[in-house]
Amino acid sequence: MDIVEIKSFLAVIEFRSFTLAAKRVHITQSAMSKRIQKMENELGVRLFIVEGSKITLTEAASHFVPYARQMLAAYNSALKSFKDDAQMLQHHIVVGATVFVSHYILPSFLSYLKTEESSLIIHIRTMAEHDIEDYLNRGTVDLVISPERDLPSKIIATQLWQEKYYYVANKSHELSQINRVLSLSDFVNYPAIFTQKSGVIRDKVERAFDESQLNLNVSLEISTLDAIKSLVEFNLGWSVLPSKLISDQLNVLNVDTTDIILNFNVFYLKKRMEERAITNFLHIFNKWQNQNSTDEKAS
Fold it and tell me: What pTM did the predictor assign?
């Protein structure tokens, strides 16, 4: 038997009525009868004699009452203790993150987390941005940090920060040798290196080329920004990268086009928005961001 059945039994004891007891625990009279019958089957005794509207306790029921009250009291005590101690208990959370976030954002955050008196234990799962909805629905991850993406309304998306992306090429690349502001038309004859289609950055760049009625000449597709960076360093093409990945071997190209700004969001299911692990994570992450912002202004 479970605590729900114990509560139902004690409600019948209190009201001497299946109907009133059912109302007390917010179920139908039929459901109440089934709960009592289940208890009787488990205990192997009859608990109540029903004669019309009159209910009489059997000797077995009277004998069981103090035990039922002890069980309910123990349950309530354990529940209260757990709630009181919840702040001290460890809260595990699985954070899904794209490769860029896993490699260049979360290490600094995890280092900050060690300085906080937090009960939060974070597990990182690197994933592709197009898997967000599936991973959240399956419970594979608790939340995801990823570039902005259109998702169903049952998933909450909150912006965490923005990254500016730059057109880059090897310093010896032909584009790096042009001593003027470049236009997108200057790029069409040179091979580009990007992630596969449906990546947010590639979509933004392709849209810019389409609006200028130009073709984006993608010669290599590869899954991670780190790999793209390496290929550009080897002068195999140009690409678009965030500042954190721009090395001394690369040249930021001056291009007459709209800045590429990418929002990075945290995604989680709306039905889980009040879970302690998620609210704790967001609180600490925001504190870390505010500290970083303060440090950058001070420097």
Answer: 0.68
Structure tokens at 43: 């205990």
The architecture (CATH level 2) of 88-161+263-298 comes to 3-Layer(aba) Sandwich (3.40)
* C-beta of residue 277 within 8 angstroms of C-beta of residue 120: yes
According to DSSP, the residues that pair with 79 across neighbouring strands are none
Identify which of 183, 144, 164 has the alpha carbon closest to the alpha carbon of residue 272.
Answer: 144
H or E stretch at 268: strand 260-269
**Domains in the chain: boundaries:** 3-86, 88-161+263-298, 167-261
Q: pLDDT averaged over the chain?
A: 92
CB atoms within 10 A of CB 26: 7
| pLDDT over threshold 80, residue 293 | no
Measured over the CA atoms of residue 10, residue 15, residue 17 and residue 18, the dihedral's sign is negative
* CATH code, 167-261: 3.40.190.10
Residue 139 CB-density burial (10 A; 0-12 exposed, 13-18 middle, 19+ buried): exposed
